[in-house]
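Need the bound structure for cytidine-5'-monophosphate, inputs here:
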Amino acid sequence: MINKIALALDLSTKEEIEILINQLNPQPQIFKIGFQAIYSLGLFECLRLVNNLAPHSDIFLDLKLHDIPNTVSQAVQSLSKVSELYKIKYLTIHALGGSKMLSESSKVSEGKINLIAVTVLTSHSEEDIQHDLGLPLDKLSMKLAENAHQAGIEWLVSSAHECKNLKNKFSDMKIITPGIRPEVNSANNGDQSRVMTPKQALEDGADIMVIGRPIYKSDNPQKVWSQVLENH
Ligand code: C5P
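Answer from helper R.:
Posting the output first, comments after.
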């Protein structure tokens, strides 16, 4: 089950999603649904759409929950209740929300949904974190991972650049890495700062890689998708 690829469906219309999913062969094992699709189409419309178009794929809900512990754990509980029906296997929550928020959410998710703690967004560079928080990025990422681990969360989102260190310290945790680019070349990075190729990310221990724009913005999504599959 390890070493999968999640395709980010950061699209706004039903037609765009249908065209993309219908042209990919083999279909991705995981589709990631986030703000753009949900705020355009509605959560349950997105879930039904992807379930219908890709009945064998799992759903990764990238909601990046971050609020007081009661609000977040109630949301996690509500989603856990419908997770089996809609094949929601993964759900993101911000590790910056704090240990209490993480542990209360972890308790209610148990056995139903894989809660994933987001450490430091891959769009943040080392300089951004130093400037905004006055902290070294690797220390922040490690501390957030430790909080998630202590809260009983088994999954992390981090940049592939932190993967090796995180795996060395928390060998029982699984890591999801966005910022994946078939070719690392700053012209392709968009707003991502810490990018890696699929091959490098896997060598560094990524369990699931997330890729979006290099595929859905390509003139030939199937070609890029095949290349990603061949090279990982
Ligand atoms: O288009 P691209 O391949 O950069 O997509 C990356 C996806 O992963 C986006 O949907 C983004 O919201 C998400 N993500 C991320 N960094 C994180 C967590 C999620 O880029 N730390």
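Comments: The chain has one domain: 2-230. The radius of gyration is 17 Å.
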